[in-house]
Structures are given as structure tokens and as C-alpha cells.
Amino acid sequence: MEEIRRRAGADDKPLRMVKTVLHELVKLRGAAIKGHLSMIPIDMKPQPIILAYIDLNLETLAAARMLTSTAPVGQNHWGDSVANNSSPATHSAEAQLKQELAAIFKKIGDKQTCTIGLYELHRITQLYPEVDIFAQLQNASEAFRTYIRDGLAQMEKNTAAGRDAF
């Protein structure tokens, strides 16, 4: 955050533009924005500035009641669940997550986008470890569920070995 404050004083127009776009995205997507950060390393030390800025926007917009869909205020851990809270906004976030999972499963089912879909699903399982992705696949074929299970296991092995997930 200090880097953002330092650069903001230098009349950094590109930074202002990025901050404005990010602010609008957080306002529109709420906590679900965290599901779209597949290329941001969430476990890096120090944590990337964008994550702190998104958290700050979520808190500020929640306090001003300007979020379209919100997670509980004060959630700063990127793996925290929105599924354990029973507020109406949380149900909206859960519905959004289900829609995102459905879109990811569709990508996995397409030969051209299956690797990207598996990567996004792997990222979702890291961000929301308590979400049972296989509950959404109960009507899918056993072969599809096995393909996903094996693909996620391979990505986990690659991540543990320090390589890219895919």
C-alpha cells in the first residue's frame, strides 16, 4: 500500500487509471472479484499490492454500502470462505461462484480451453478450499469427474514441485 501512496503523489496517470478500473470492477463484482485473479500469485511474500488494494476497496465500498455483492467485511485472507455466512449478499456470492464454476466446467469440456479451465478450477480450489466442486458435478459423467480429479492432482503436484500449475 505504501507503494501506491508514494506513486499517487507523483501524478502517476497510468496508476490512477488502473486504480479507477480496479475500483469499478470491485464495485461491480464484490468479493467475487477474487475468483478472477488466476494469474496473481496469492501466496507470495510480500503479497502483491493489487491484493491489498482490492481488500481496501472491498472494505471501503462495504462501509459505504456500494457493493453489488459483498463478502463479510474485514475478510483479508484470500482463502477465506463466503460460504459459511448466511446473509442474502452471501447467497448472491455463492450463486456467482456457482455460475463461475459452471463456466469453468464448460471450458474444461472444450478441447481448446480445457487447460485454461483446469488452471482456473485449480485457482478456485486454492481461493475457496471449503467449496465442494464435485457437488456441482453430480450430474456429470464419471469420466469427466475423473478427468478433473486427475487434472487437479497433476496441477497440485506441479505447484508443490515449484513449477507452473500446468
UniProtKB/TrEMBL annotation:
Q: Which domain of life is it from?
A: Eukaryota
Entries under InterPro entries matching the protein: XMAP215
Q: GO BP, one example?
A: establishment or maintenance of microtubule cytoskeleton polarity
Question: Which interval of the chain is the signal sequence?
Answer: none
> GO MF annotations for this entry?
microtubule plus end polymerase; microtubule plus-end binding
Question: What name does the UniProt record give this protein?
Answer: MICROTUBULE ASSOCIATED PROTEIN XMAP215
Q: Which organism is it from?
A: Salix purpurea
